[in-house]
Specification:
With 113 residues, this protein is an alpha+beta fold. 16% of the residues lie in helices and 26% in strands. The protein is built from two helices and eight strands; from the N terminus they run H-E-E-E-E-E-E-H-E-E. A two-stranded antiparallel ribbon has the order 1-2. The model has no long low-confidence stretch (mean pLDDT 81).
Length: 113
């Protein structure tokens, strides 16, 4: 079956991995920015929908915020390459950032360090 590129792009750019094989389309998360230093927990309460049956996603930030202060969550332990390719940004002080270079030596298989 052919996959609609537009629909795939919507899912890839907005779906959130919840563990196992579960994903969630949660558009409100598009408004919460990433900070890799903020411990964030997520859980799903099944069949606890607001207007009938449905699942509810709960997010908990590991810090307190003042009124009017921007709240952040962590999208996960992501390098700058991950956030650039998946979300379109990098952070200056990313605690999960790593750099890798490929090395090819004559008569050897290529490897990365």
């Amino acid at each position: 079956k052919d996959i609609d590129p537009w629909a795939l792009a919507c899912v890839d750019s907005r779906a959130n991995f919840l563990g196992g094989e579960s994903f969630s389309m949660t558009p409100i998360l598009d408004m919460i920015n990433h900070d890799g230093t903020v411990p964030t927990r997520a859980r799903v309460n099944e069949d606890k929908g607001f207007a009938g049956s449905g699942d509810v996603l709960h997010l908990t930030s590991g810090r307190s915020y003042s009124k009017g202060e921007e709240a952040f969550i962590s999208y996960g332990s992501l390098s700058n390459l991950d956030t650039l390719t998946d979300y379109g940004f990098v952070t200056e002080n990313n605690p999960c950032n790593s750099e890798s270079i490929g090395i090819r030596m004559m008569r050897s298989k290529p490897f990365s360090v």
